[in-house]
């Protein structure tokens, strides 16, 4: 038996669902999408999920179901988790909106997060197993136009606690703040084909690529920006495309400028993919959680 307390809060499903535009803005889901996931997935799995979670504790003195209960109903906890991921508000603000203590916010999010991961659509692999692409048709399926786009994205983190040497490893000279970097490979339709784990912000984009570059089939052109200068020399066996670099005291020719413009139009695919990821503020604002959860 699960008990709940009546909590009067500024933000709840009953209030927010009356304003569909705000609901989509706050959660990333339409009201109908939220209802479908909650009714068809979460309500069916919640009881077994809670029973399994509470049964994990060894040497339990109290019976399952005893002890401190959640103050919010499951639907509002689900809503709170989505708002946290979509807007990435602080626990202080979340506590004010949902009329809870900060410790309750942290506890509620952690307890229901694993269940929500089982119910929400998540990025899925194109193939369940890794296989070598052997024919041009197979390559064309995964790399339409025989193009792939590679770039790094940075996200700010709080200044690391510790000695100065550790802080310098995360300091990005480009962003002038402490960051972590992730390298992405994207195909022409904008699907992520490969990603690295997070790297320390002081590392250069090309340095990350040299030690963590994905291997693509022959015939696929890797499209880079000027941060990857030297890739054509260091990896002559692969096809690479970079824009023309303007040299000091020399202007680019008209043909070079037109090529750079065409190159940028193609490479905008990966910028749009990164933009879609960062619409969830938890992937765009200062990442305040532990880095072991980042990837």
Briefly say what this structure is.
Strands 1, 2, 3, 4, 5, 6 and 7 form a 7-stranded mixed β-sheet that branches. The chain folds into 2 domains: about 15-120, no CATH class; about 135-295.
How is the biggest beta sheet arranged?
7 strands, mixed
Look at the helices and sheets and give the structural class. alpha/beta
Overall average residue pLDDT: 88
Give the distance, in angstroms, between the N- and C-terminal Cα atoms.
Answer: 35 Å
Helix content: 40-55%
Order of helices and strands: HHHHHHHEHEEEEHEHEH
| Total tally of structural domains | 2
Q: What is the molecular shape?
A: elongated
Give the strand content.
5-15%
Based on CA atoms alone, the radius of gyration comes out at: 24 Å
Q: Count of DSSP E strands? A: 7
Q: What are the segments in which pLDDT stays under 50 over at least 5 consecutive residues?
A: none
Number of helices: 11
